[in-house]
């Protein structure tokens, strides 16, 4: 375990190093700026929460396409209740509403054996329609300004790591060493400082809570009896039943936790990322969370990586399209790395193909000064697709995931 | 010694079937007690009742002299009864340790106490001679080791009465020896062991007492040292054992199948899978293909059916069929009883009437023009079940719910119903009980008399000698001998198969 996190740190350092080189080469200073890192985190959190939600559900054996709908419920509740009773109660409501959507999914799939995908899609459609319907009622009654937007929610405070990344502790204003370092524009050192500052400074308390969910999920799922039983429901429910595990209860727990986390992700969008609920705010993040779940091979750490990747690409395209242009160079470098790896393994054809693609990308990088806007907007999706395609991975979904379960199946 | 478990007059009825009728047995501590019977005789039902998975309609269960009423397996586990399932109940993606502790995890605060669990498992494994690494994933384990995990699972829960449901069905001989050594150890520790099986030689090897069930009732309880395998078998079927045999010569003049210099070459350029095989098979004749498994019998079957490319020529009823597809050959009248009924012969999760369609999807009674005639199919399925004694509630029963013998009888019925001119029967009685075996032999005998040509492949030498009119011995892909079964003993055949003769 220790060596694993050490390895992750090494990879992170390597990535920043490569990005530093590209920054120097292209002058795209936003690649490793404080702002990009900070925005990337903000954009990653809801996806990570959705992914974690999917994790609990699918580990218990229930496919949860309904994450999107549960996030919508959460975002809407966060805006509606948060604007009335304050942001924290709004967040709590978001969790509750997400769980209500999940309860529906659980009843349909676990108790009545409805196909998981059908039920999930139904929840997505119902959630979107339902919140629009109620929002319209609020609008007509004059409580809301429009049928697609809630009143504003007061914001939740932020803080950082004392000394290193600023923040306020009991009235004491901490210095901000990393920001100072980041300003120096020293190769690699300033880049690293900026990234860490972006990831740790001016953090919303909700972001901290969300990030804490990652190790917490690892702990619950892999260190507690509850987690073992929940996973057994997704791996071998009949075996679990034969050992006295209440498989139904485990599945319900998994799906409800799933909805709570997705709801929190939605609430985060409405309360932290914006300051009100707006229609289409979720915009497919539930699905991307599912993609992060698959990318991360049904593990919390992997989900975080997947969400981070998407968040980073999304942050770049939102902030500075010039950086996207520089990103092509990163792709070229990664592809070249793959060429060397494949060639060493003796896969000459694959290496040649990758090399051709790398040359093409390089040519495009040199020939074009600025990417067309549409392509820029697509960047996060393209990046996710590319990485999922090249990352050689052995996906291992829970063995009984998505298979309807009936008690007494062993007889 | 005291009585650990006693069943008194247990009866259980399922819709349409009387599974158990007046079953009684008593198992003493420190003994291995075998429960034997044909497939479908009700052994499994008895054990499911004892393990709390089903409740008896009447009768009593006593554990250590006290009457118990189990509502579910947990109650049975609490009464120190453990079941080692035939189909392992393990999560592949969990470690051995996780599989064992699931459901009764030792705790330290809110977390699982992995260290304590590991210590306990290692100690237990050493005590009973069931060594295993607790930290490997179950998916990495072989069948024998998985069974160890299953045994450790029940021991971990403090079981003193262990039920083994056909534990040797999935094991290779070496693993069987290991299992029996483990059973010996458990017996010495004072456990009561119930051993369900229909392999009588194994039963006699390992058991102290034997209870025989037939058609849902206990018919005898004997000491294993007092009986022979043959006596047990006769108790199981309730009559003299069926013998593989045919009478008279039913051979017609018509040559049904003719192979002329048939070979299958390997793509790698190694030894041919089958080489230069030629023989004629007449209508009403059975040719037995003998050989140690993997000497080309399976490939020969695939060539005849058209599943594999070959060189040389095969003709059927006088005309060459080399260019014909599998379906076309089937339609011409080549029936097939596959060696692996669950993978090649049935759709396990489909009802029997859908299985009736398999391979017959182009002709009556299944089809009426372009339309599937469901009603006729169901009627015909019921007919097969009646004629071939397939014991199941009805045509809508899933294939997976049938015992192996009944599955096989269904396949035989399905293939013979079409009255094919040629039947390729690959291990037709493998893994079925004595009763079904006798029934299948009888069907083949009748088909032969009606003039069907049969290619019989089997590993059961007595079956080969008894059923065949002619024996071909295959060794390394070639036919190395042709024997007259009337003048051949199993020993002679065996040495011909290994190339010793």
Distance N to C terminus of chain A: 40 Å
Specify the CATH class of the largest domain in chain B.
Alpha Beta
Mean pLDDT of chain B: 86
Written as H for each helix and E for each strand, in order along the chain, the element string of chain A is HHHHHEEEHHEHHHHHHHHH
Explain briefly what this protein structure is.
Chain A is an all-alpha fold. Chain A has 16 helices and four strands.
Walk me through this protein's architecture.
The complex is a heterodimer of chains A (411) and B (501). Chain A is mostly helical. Chain A has a domain at 33-160 and 202-308. Chain A is built from 16 helices and four strands. In chain A, the strands form two sheets. Chain A has a two-stranded antiparallel ribbon. In chain A, strands 2-3 form a two-stranded antiparallel sheet. In chain A, β2 and β3 (172-173) form a beta hairpin. Chain A starts with a helix and ends in a 21-residue tail after the last helix. The model of chain A has no long low-confidence stretch (mean pLDDT 87). Chain B has 501 residues and is an alpha/beta fold. Chain B has two domains: 3-237, P-loop containing nucleotide triphosphate hydrolases (Rossmann fold, 3-Layer(aba) Sandwich); 255-494, P-loop containing nucleotide triphosphate hydrolases (Rossmann fold). Chain B is built from 17 helices and 24 strands. Chain B has a six-stranded mixed β-sheet, with helices on both faces. The model of chain B has no long low-confidence stretch (mean pLDDT 86). The chains are: A mainly alpha (411), B alpha/beta (501).
């Amino acid at each position: 375990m220790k060596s694993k996190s050490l390895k992750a740190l090494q990879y992170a350092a390597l990535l920043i190093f490569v990005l530093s080189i590209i920054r120097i080469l292209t002058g795209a200073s936003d690649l490793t700026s404080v702002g990009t890192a900070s925005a990337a985190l903000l954009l990653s959190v809801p996806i990570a929460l959705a992914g974690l939600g999917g994790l609990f559900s699918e580990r218990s054996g229930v496919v949860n396409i309904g994450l999107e709908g549960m996030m919508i419920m959460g975002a809407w509740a966060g805006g509606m209740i948060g604007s009335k009773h304050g942001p924290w109660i709004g967040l709590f409501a978001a969790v509750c509403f997400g769980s209500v959507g999940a309860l529906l999914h659980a009843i349909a799939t676990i108790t009545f054996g409805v196909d998981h995908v059908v039920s999930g899609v139904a929840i997505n459609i119902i959630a979107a329609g339902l919140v629009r319907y109620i929002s319209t009622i609020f609008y007509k009654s004059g409580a809301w300004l429009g049928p697609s937007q809630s009143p504003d929610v007061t914001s939740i405070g932020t803080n950082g790591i004392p000394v290193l990344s600023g923040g306020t502790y009991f009235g004491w204003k901490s210095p901000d060493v990393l920001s100072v370092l980041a300003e120096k524009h020293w190769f690699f050192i300033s880049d690293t400082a900026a990234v860490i500052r972006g990831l740790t400074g001016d953090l919303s308390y909700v972001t901290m809570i969300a990030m804490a969910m990652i190790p917490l999920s690892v702990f619950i799922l892999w260190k507690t009896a509850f987690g073992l039983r929940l996973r057994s429901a997704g791996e071998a429910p009949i075996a679990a039943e034969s050992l006295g595990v209440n498989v139904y209860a485990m599945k319900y727990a998994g799906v409800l936790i799933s909805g709570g986390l997705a709801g929190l992700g939605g609430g985060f969008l409405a309360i932290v990322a914006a300051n009100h609920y707006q229609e289409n705010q979720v915009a497919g993040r539930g699905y991307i969370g599912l993609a992060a779940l698959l990318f991360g091979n049904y593990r919390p750490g992997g989900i975080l990586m997947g969400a981070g990747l998407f968040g980073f690409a999304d942050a770049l395209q939102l902030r500075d399209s010039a950086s996207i242009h520089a990103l092509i160079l990163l792709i070229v470098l990664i592809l070249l790395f793959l060429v060397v790896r494949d060639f060493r393994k003796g896969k000459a054809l694959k290496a040649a193909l990758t090399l051709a693609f790398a040359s093409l990308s390089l040519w495009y990088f040199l020939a074009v000064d600025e990417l067309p806007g549409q392509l820029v907007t697509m960047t996060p999706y393209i990046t996710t697709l590319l990485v999922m395609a090249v990352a050689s991975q052995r996906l291992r979904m829970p063995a009984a995931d998505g298979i309807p379960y009936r008690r007494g199946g062993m007889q | 010694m005291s009585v650990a478990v006693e069943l008194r007059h247990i009866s259980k009825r399922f819709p349409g079937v009387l599974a158990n009728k007046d079953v009684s047995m008593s198992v003493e501590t420190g003994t291995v007690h075998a429960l034997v019977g044909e497939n479908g005789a009700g052994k499994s039902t008895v054990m499911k009742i004892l393990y709390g998975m089903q409740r008896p309609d009447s009768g009593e269960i006593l554990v250590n002299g006290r009457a118990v009423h189990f509502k579910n397996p947990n109650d049975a586990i609490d009464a120190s009864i453990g079941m080692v399932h035939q189909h392992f109940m393990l999560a592949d993606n969990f470690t051995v340790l996780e599989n064992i502790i699931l459901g009764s995890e030792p705790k330290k605060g809110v977390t699982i106490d992995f260290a304590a669990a590991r210590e306990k498992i290692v100690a237990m494994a050493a005590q009973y001679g069931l060594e295993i690494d607790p930290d490997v994933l179950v998916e990495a384990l072989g069948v024998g080791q998985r069974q160890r995990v299953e045994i450790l699972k029940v021991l971990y829960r403090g079981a003193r009465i262990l039920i083994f449901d056909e534990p040797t069905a999935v094991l290779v001989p070496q693993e069987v020896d290991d299992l029996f050594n483990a059973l010996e150890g458990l017996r010495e520790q004072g456990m009561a062991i119930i051993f369900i099986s229909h392999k009588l030689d194994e039963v006699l090897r390992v058991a102290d007492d034997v209870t025989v069930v037939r058609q849902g009732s206990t018919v005898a309880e004997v000491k294993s040292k007092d009986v022979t395998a043959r006596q047990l078998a006769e108790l199981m079927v309730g009559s003299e054992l069926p013998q593989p045999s045919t009478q008279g010569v039913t051979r017609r003049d018509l040559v049904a199948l003719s192979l002329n210099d048939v070979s299958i070459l390997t793509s790698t350029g190694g030894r041919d899978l089958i080489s230069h095989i030629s023989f004629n098979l007449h209508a009403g004749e059975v040719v037995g293909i003998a050989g140690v498994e993997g000497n080309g019998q399976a490939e020969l079957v695939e060539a005849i059916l058209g599943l594999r490319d070959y060189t040389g020529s095969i003709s059927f009823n006088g005309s060459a069929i080399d260019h014909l597809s599998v379906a076309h050959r089937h339609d011409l009248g080549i029936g097939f009883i596959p060696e692996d009924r669950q993978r090649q012969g049935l759709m396990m999760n489909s009802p029997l009437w859908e299985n009736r369609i398999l391979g017959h999807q182009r002709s009556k009674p299944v089809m009426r023009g372009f339309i599937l005639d469901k009603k006729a199919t169901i009627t015909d399925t019921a007919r097969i079940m009646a004629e071939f004694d397939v014991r199941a509630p009805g045509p809508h029963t899933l294939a997976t719910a049938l015992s192996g013998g009944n599955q096989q009888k269904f396949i035989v019925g399905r293939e013979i119903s079409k009255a094919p001119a040629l039947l390729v029967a690959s291990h037709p009685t493998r893994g079925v009980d004595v009763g079904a075996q006798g029934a299948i032999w009888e069907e083949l005998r009748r088909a032969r008399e009606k003039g069907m040509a049969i290619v019989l492949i089997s590993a059961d030498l007595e079956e080969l000698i008894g059923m065949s009119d002619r024996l071909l011995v295959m060794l390394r892909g070639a036919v190395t001998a042709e024997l007259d079964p009337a003048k051949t003993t199993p020993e002679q055949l065996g040495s011909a198969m290994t190339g010793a003769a």
